[in-house]
Specification:
Blueprint lengths: L2 H11 L14 H8 L14 H7 L5 E3 L4 H16 L2 H12 L5 H12 L5 H22 L5 E3 L6 H8 L14 H23 L4 H14 L5
Parallel strand pairs: 1-2
């Protein structure tokens, strides 16, 4: 993931977000540099920038998958928001940024603050439902019906392939968008980051890595 470019995109998209540096608005050329112009965008990191991407690619087809907020928010909060602002993540972000030069942490915070119109976590939670609903209203208002598909989870391949003009694959539709799968994937990503960091930095980082490992069980305690 080109985190440095995504950070610039966040600063250009939401200039009032905390920590943002002055940027010119992103152009199609700038977006091409992040995701390229030769493949479809189907990544979670592209979603917050949908408004700008629709303007940059006016002929693109858009698939809208809107879950009910009350069912979406708990998993989003526990799997992403809680992780982003947890003590464990703060240590990992420090290692990535200052030891390996990876700007994923600052980028994710700027994207969240910008998308939810917030300056801290409390404001993210306060603004979440309004921002979520307004986001989908804007997207529907920007894309004409013939270029958008209102897709419901569980509809399978048929409506998606018909909309995109593709043949239906002879394989089951993947169903991995559940809370348990996300939790397992998140734990695996944390472990990978820790191992990569340890290999990259050597023994001098052992005390810090040991601290992160010690804190990991605390992050797994479920909320009441």
């Amino acid at each position: 993931m080109p985190w440095d470019l995504l950070e610039k995109a966040a600063e250009a998209s939401w200039p009032a977000t905390p920590g943002a540096r002055p940027r010119d608005p992103f152009t199609r050329t700038d977006w091409d540099e992040i995701w390229g112009s030769h493949y479809d965008v189907a990544t979670d990191m592209a979603s917050p920038f949908a408004d700008q991407l629709i303007k940059a690619y006016p002929d693109a087809k858009v698939v809208i998958v809107q879950r009910d907020f009350e069912s979406w928010w708990p998993s989003y909060k526990s799997e992403l928001l809680d992780t982003l602002f947890s003590p464990v993540s703060q240590v990992i972000v420090f290692l990535l940024e200052h030891i390996m030069g990876i700007r994923s942490g600052p980028t994710m915070r700027k994207v969240h603050f910008g998308f939810f119109g917030a300056k801290n976590r409390a404001e993210i939670e306060a603004n979440a439902k309004t921002s979520y609903n307004e986001y989908y209203e804007r997207i529907r208002g920007m894309v004409p019906p013939e270029r958008r598909l209102e897709y419901k989870l569980g509809d399978g391949w048929e409506p998606l392939c018909a909309f995109l003009g593709k043949e239906v694959p002879d394989v089951p539709f993947p169903r991995l968008n559940d809370r348990k799968t996300h939790s397992a994937g998140d734990s695996k990503r944390k472990a990978t980051i820790l191992l990569t960091t340890l290999k990259k930095t050597g023994l001098m980082m052992l005390p810090i890595v040991a601290l992160v490992i010690a804190l990991c069980p605390l992050a797994e305690i479920p909320e009441p």
